Structure formats: structure tokens, C-alpha cells
């Protein structure tokens, strides 16, 4: 007893010291325990035979509270029981009339509508995988996406009639059947399924239809929304779906919460975390067809929203909207998402009140990630020593010019020191597998780094540069393809964009590097959209960049655009801008050049362009 007393006394004396030298140890430990609990739950669920999947979690919620709203869409309310019955009806038609069986994949080409959810659950009830097509893609990209996932059935709606009819002959040639989820079909050769679904039985389907489903079975294919190249279909296994959906629970979302999702359902954030998270905790989801700045807070008040999902650009749009007297009048307590810049983060909290921001980092196809559970502004998470033991990762030196990791004389990668940006690589293990992409093994292999720290080890190449500060906070720096090299230095585009965005006359900014004949590397250029009713201030921008950026990072060219080209998930596109460079004969937008002699950004002329090519104008 005396020894126990001494031990407890020592522990009580130790706690204040831990708080001084390791101020975040308790939060780190708490997050570690929550993550371990999620992992153990996942293990227990998939040890069972048959496996206890996300579908079974949903069915469990249906039994517990059948009349609770699961989806709110405009004036429509769909309870857990409603979605269960609709998904069963859909499953019977897909299995009976269409002949789909366990292991088949079905492509879904739909806008943000409630049917997306019950089609997903209906496919799960017969053991089929769902390929989530970006409703913005067309022509060859759409056809490639369909073929790459090996689907023989495409479910869509008349809203996307033009996109379907454009490639319908090719689909018929490849024997891919197309169906509209509508009462009638406006396209010859495409059958409408709504009548069959409405008349089908809503009784539960036999479990043996999905008897072979395991943790390694594919649940969903999510296509990467990169800004260049053809889409790649990332394999989301049942196990990964379970763990990703668990992010809501880790971040404190409860069954009482109402989640507001405006992101596209073909994206992992909305489908896996948003809808999947609601199914996991038993919450309610407000689904909107598309993001609207003007309706955002009105919707939050109308539906009594407590949790919002975001990507960085969504938050920036909200902060750029005109101020309203009632913009703090809402019940939102938590915002969960990724890609928010520091200045937007601060502005959002100042304008809209003390909302807990839970920023996370993770690639759709990745095998690990970070969650900011401390509220540190600008951070994507912590270098948690407990979690690092469970899912090892490293930040390694990366040669931007050669587009490859730097290796030492033994051929191994080199860890970066504290505070320096490095390529994030996460170890591929049995507990943290990398499932890769469907179709092309070369694309999967390209994301794997071998012999990173020792012979034979395997790491997932995130393609992102991150840094860790002296307090252990992790920060996103840039994407490898976006970072460029000028005058022997690496230029992080996100850092330059953040600096330029502080200027009041700049509404949006997209920074990239363009090649210049006769020069090594790429030189900085910024595409800018001006704030409404404001003019470009070349002198002020010159002074600002000189004050806040190193000389090699200052953009030498500025391009004014009326609108920025973005992906469906609000990522800025750089490919076309890089290709067009700073040639005034190609670019119809207004161009400016940084003139050191005038200490100002001045209009770019054809004479200036020729002088740069002839090396008569110094860069």
C-alpha cells in the first residue's frame, strides 16, 4: 500500500512536468487511444463470418432508430428506414433484371442526389463495388474511367444526357449497358429503371448474396481529381471504408449532429467521410446539389446544422462573401475538411465565431494521414510519437528538379531536419496496406518507393511536401508537381499564393512555374482574379512581394483572369497555364512583367517578350 501511495504521488508530481516539457502529450495520447479503438473495432468486425461491414453498421442503425432522418435534401426527408427500403428495391432490380452478382462493379455517373446513397447501399447488399464517376468529365476521360474499372453497367440520369449520348456508340461497342434512374428515357438504347425500382419488393435481401465480402473486397472506386492526366481509379476496400468513415467519430461527431455536405459525392471527403461517417455514428446528413456561397449559412440555420464539411476553397469563398449581420447566428460547432490556408482560417474564425476547425490530411489512395486535433491554426496534425509507432512515416529529402527523392551513398533516402520541407512517405505494412489503382499496375507501382531506409522496405509516395516544426506540428507545404526550382532554390507555390492573397485587390491567385528558353528551371508566374470593383495595383504588389518573399520566389509575371479554372473539388488547374507560359501572342488575358527599374509590375508587351527570349531583359 505504501509503495502504491509513493507511485501515485510520483505520478501526480510528474504530470505538471509533462505539461511543461510536453504540452500536448495528453491530446496525443487521447488521439492514439481513439485510433487504436477504431483499429480494434475494425479488426473485430472483419474477423466475424460473415464480415461486419459498413452496410451492416447502417442496418444496425435502421433497427435502432428507423424513423430518424438520414438524408435531408431540399424539402425532402429520408429516414434510415426509407433509405433501407429504397436500397433494397434498387438491389433487387440490379440483381434480378440486370443480372449483377457479387464481385461485379457498377459505375455511377450522377449529380449530388439522394439516389446516390441508396444505389451505393443497394450495390453493397448484393456484394458489388461502385465506381464513382466525376460528373464534370466528358468524352475520352469519361470513357477511360468506365473502361478502367471494368464495369459492364453504368447508372446515370437524364441530367447528363448529352455526356452519355456523346460516347454511347463506344459504350455499346464495349458492351457497357447504360440505364437512367428515371421514369422515362430521352435516349434511344438507354432503358429507364425507376418504374421497376418502385414496383420491386423492399424486403431484406439474403445475406448469402454478399457472403464472400471481406476486408479486402472493393467497396468503392474513387477517381483521383488531379489537375492533369486521365483519372485513376483508387481502390477503396471494405477495411479502408470502415477506417475512413471512423474519422467522424475520432473528431467528436455524435448521433445528435447534423452534417452539412456540399462537396460532390464522387469525392472521398463527401462519400466516405461525410455519408460513411453519418452511417458509422448514426447522424443526419444535409445533402446539397452543389456548393452555394449565398445559401450556405441560410441552409445551416434552416436545418440546424452542427457540423460542416469543407475543402479550402469553400472556406475562402465564404470569407470573400459580403458580410451579413446574422453570419454568426448559427449552430455550427465543428468544421471538418482539408486544404484551408492560414489567412482564411483566421478570417473564418473572426467572422463566423468559435467553430472548432478539424483540418485533416490524407490522399484518397494513401495508407495513412493526419488529423489536427489540437486546433493549431494552419496545421494538418501532429507528429504523434504514439501513432507513428502504429503507422510509420517519414519526411525525406526531395530533388524537385530531378523529380525524385535524394539518396545517400548507400542508396537510402535521407530524412529532412526539423522545419525543412520533405516528401511524405508512409510505410506499407499489413496494418497500413496500399491497395493501389485498378487496371494499370504501372500507376500503382509508381506510387511505391522501395529501399527507403533499409533494404526491402516499401513506402507509399504521397507526392506531397510537408514539414514538422519544433513543437511537432505538421504543415502541408506543396505538391511535388506544383513546386518548381528557380535560381537553385525550391519555390513552394502555396507559400507564394498565401503571401499574394493578403493583398486586398486579389480575390483569387494561382501560382505556377513557367519555362524560359535559355534558363535553368522555371520562373514564377501568378494568375490572379481581381476583387470586384478593384484595380490591379502593380506598384503595391511589387512592394509587398519584396517585403515578404525571397527574391527567387517573387513571380516575374502576372496574368489577370476573369475566372479561375478549377476541378470539381475546387482544386486549381495549372497545366494549361504552364503550357501557355507568358507569351502575349497566345494569351488574351492582360499580362504584367515585374520591372525592377520602375519598381512596379508593368503591362507586358511583345517587345518585352522578344527581349526576354533574346536574353536582353534580365530576369
Descriptive keywords:
619 residues; alpha/beta; Rossmann fold; GMP Synthetase, Chain A, domain 3; eight-stranded mixed sheet; seven-stranded mixed sheet; 34% helix
Summarize the structure.
It comes from Alligator sinensis (Chinese alligator). By secondary structure, the protein is of the alpha/beta class.
Polypeptide structure, described:
- GO terms for molecular function: long-chain fatty acid transmembrane transporter activity; long-chain fatty acid-CoA ligase activity; nucleotide binding.
- Residues 60-382 form the AMP-dependent synthetase/ligase domain.
- InterPro entries: AMP-bd_C, AMP-bd_C_sf, AMP-binding_CS, AMP-dep_synth/lig_dom, ANL_N_sf.
- This protein is 34% helix and 23% strand.
- The chain is an alpha/beta fold.
- Among the domains are: 80-244, Rossmann fold, CATH 3.40.50.980; 381-417 and 425-478, no CATH class; 482-613, ANL, C-terminal domain (GMP Synthetase, Chain A, domain 3).
- The protein has an eight-stranded mixed β-sheet. A seven-stranded mixed β-sheet has the order 7-6-5-3-4-8-9, with helices on both faces.
- A hairpin with a 4-residue loop joins β22 and β23.
- α4 (80-96) packs across α5 (115-125) and α9 packs across α11.
- The longest helix is centred in the N-terminal third of the chain and has 23 residues, at 25-47.
- The radius of gyration is 26 Å and the shape is globular.
- It starts with a helix and ends in a 6-residue tail after the last helix.
The structural class is alpha/beta
CATH class (first level) name of one domain: Alpha Beta
Alpha-carbon Rg, integer: 26 Å
Looking at the overall shape, the CATH architecture of one domain is 3-Layer(aba) Sandwich
Beta-strand content estimate: 15-25%
The fold-level CATH name of one domain is Rossmann fold
Q: List segments where confidence is low: pLDDT < 50 over at least 5 consecutive residues.
A: none
Instruction: Give the termini distance in whole angstroms.
Output: 77 Å
Shape: globular
Count the beta strands.
30
Mean pLDDT: 91
Per DSSP, the total helix count is: 20
As laid out across the biggest beta sheet, the strand order is 2-1-11-10-12-13-14-15
Helix content: 25-40%
Biggest pleated sheet:
8 strands, mixed
EC number: 6.2.1.3
GO molecular function: long-chain fatty acid transmembrane transporter activity; long-chain fatty acid-CoA ligase activity; nucleotide binding
Membrane topology: Multi-pass membrane protein
Protein name: long-chain-fatty-acid--CoA ligase
Amino acid at each position: 500500500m505504501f509503495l502504491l501511495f509513493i507511485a501515485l504521488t510520483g505520478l501526480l508530481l510528474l504530470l505538471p512536468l509533462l505539461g511543461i516539457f510536453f504540452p500536448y502529450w495528453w491530446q496525443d495520447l487521447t488521439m492514439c487511444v481513439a485510433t487504436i479503438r477504431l483499429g480494434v473495432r475494425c479488426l473485430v468486425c472483419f474477423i466475424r463470418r460473415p464480415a461486419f461491414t459498413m452496410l451492416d453498421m447502417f442496418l444496425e442503425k435502421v433497427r435502432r432508430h428507423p424513423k430518424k432522418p438520414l438524408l435531408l435534401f431540399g424539402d425532402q426527408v429520408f429516414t434510415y428506414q426509407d433509405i433501407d427500403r429504397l436500397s433494397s428495391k434498387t438491389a433487387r432490380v440490379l440483381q434480378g433484371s440486370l443480372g449483377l452478382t457479387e464481385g461485379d462493379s457498377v459505375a455511377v455517373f450522377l449529380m449530388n442526389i439522394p439516389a446516390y446513397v441508396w444505389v451505393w447501399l443497394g450495390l453493397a447488399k448484393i456484394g458489388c463495388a461502385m465506381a464513382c464517376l466525376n460528373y464534370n468529365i466528358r468524352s475520352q476521360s469519361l470513357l477511360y474511367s468506365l473502361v478502367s474499372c471494368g464495369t459492364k453497367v453504368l447508372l446515370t440520369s437524364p441530367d447528363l444526357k448529352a455526356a452519355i449520348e456523346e460516347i454511347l456508340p463506344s459504350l455499346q461497342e464495349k458492351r457497357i449497358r447504360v440505364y437512367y434512374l428515371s421514369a422515362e428515357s430521352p435516349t434511344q438504347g438507354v432503358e429507364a429503371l425507376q418504374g421497376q425500382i418502385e414496383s420491386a419488393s423492399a424486403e431484406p435481401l439474403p445475406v448469402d448474396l454478399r457472403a464472400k465480402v471481406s476486408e479486402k473486397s472493393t467497396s468503392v472506386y474513387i477517381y483521383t481529381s488531379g489537375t492533369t492526366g486521365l483519372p485513376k481509379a483508387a481502390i477503396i476496400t471494405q477495411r479502408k471504408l470502415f477506417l475512413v468513415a471512423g474519422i467522424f467519430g475520432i473528431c467528436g461527431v455524435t448521433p445528435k449532429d447534423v452534417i452539412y455536405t456540399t462537396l460532390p459525392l464522387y469525392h472521398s471527403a463527401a462519400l466516405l467521410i461525410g455519408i460513411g461517417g453519418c452511417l458509422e455514428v448514426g447522424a443526419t446528413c444535409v445533402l446539397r446539389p452543389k456548393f452555394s456561397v449565398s445559401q450556405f449559412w441560410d441552409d445551416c440555420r434552416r436545418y440546424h446544422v452542427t457540423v460542416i464539411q469543407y475543402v479550402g476553397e469553400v472556406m475562402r469563398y465564404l470569407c470573400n462573401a459580403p458580410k451579413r449581420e446574422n453570419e454568426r447566428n448559427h449552430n455550427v460547432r465543428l468544421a471538418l475538411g482539408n486544404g484551408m490556408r492560414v489567412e482564411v482560417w483566421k478570417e473564418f474564425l473572426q467572422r463566423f465565431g468559435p467553430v472548432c476547425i478539424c483540418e485533416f490530411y490524407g490522399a484518397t489512395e494513401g495508407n495513412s494521414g493526419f488529423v489536427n486535433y489540437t486546433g493549431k491554426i494552419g496545421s494538418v496534425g501532429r507528429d504523434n510519437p504514439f501513432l507513428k509507432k502504429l503507422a510509420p512515416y517519414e519526411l525525406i529529402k526531395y530533388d524537385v528538379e530531378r523529380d525524385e527523392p535524394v539518396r545517400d551513398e548507400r542508396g537510402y533516402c535521407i530524412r529532412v531536419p526539423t522545419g525543412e520541407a520533405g516528401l511524405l512517405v508512409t510505410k506499407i505494412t499489413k496494418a497500413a496496406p496500399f491497395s493501389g489503382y485498378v487496371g494499370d499496375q504501372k500507376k500503382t507501382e509508381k506510387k511505391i518507393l522501395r529501399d527507403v531506409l533499409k533494404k526491402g522496405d516499401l513506402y507509399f509516395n504521397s507526392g506531397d511536401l510537408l514539414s514538422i516544426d519544433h513543437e511537432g506540428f505538421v504543415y502541408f507545404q506543396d505538391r511535388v508537381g506544383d513546386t518548381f526550382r528557380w535560381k537553385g532554390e525550391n519555390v513552394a507555390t502555396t507559400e507564394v499564393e498565401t503571401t499574394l492573397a493578403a493583398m486586398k485587390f486579389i480575390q483569387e491567385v494561382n501560382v505556377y512555374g513557367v519555362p524560359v528558353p535559355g534558363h535553368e528551371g522555371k520562373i514564377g508566374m501568378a494568375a490572379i482574379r481581381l476583387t470586384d470593383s478593384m484595380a490591379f495595383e502593380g506598384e503595391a504588389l511589387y512592394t509587398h512581394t519584396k517585403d515578404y518573399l525571397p527574391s527567387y520566389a517573387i513571380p516575374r509575371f502576372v496574368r489577370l483572369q476573369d475566372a479561375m479554372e478549377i476541378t470539381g473539388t475546387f482544386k486549381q488547374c495549372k497545366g494549361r497555364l504552364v503550357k501557355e507560359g507568358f507569351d502575349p501572342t497566345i494569351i488574351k488575358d492582360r499580362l504584367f512583367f515585374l520591372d525592377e527599374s520602375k519598381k512596379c509590375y508593368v503591362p507586358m508587351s511583345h517587345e518585352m517578350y522578344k527581349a526576354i527570349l533574346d536574353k536582353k531583359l534580365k530576369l
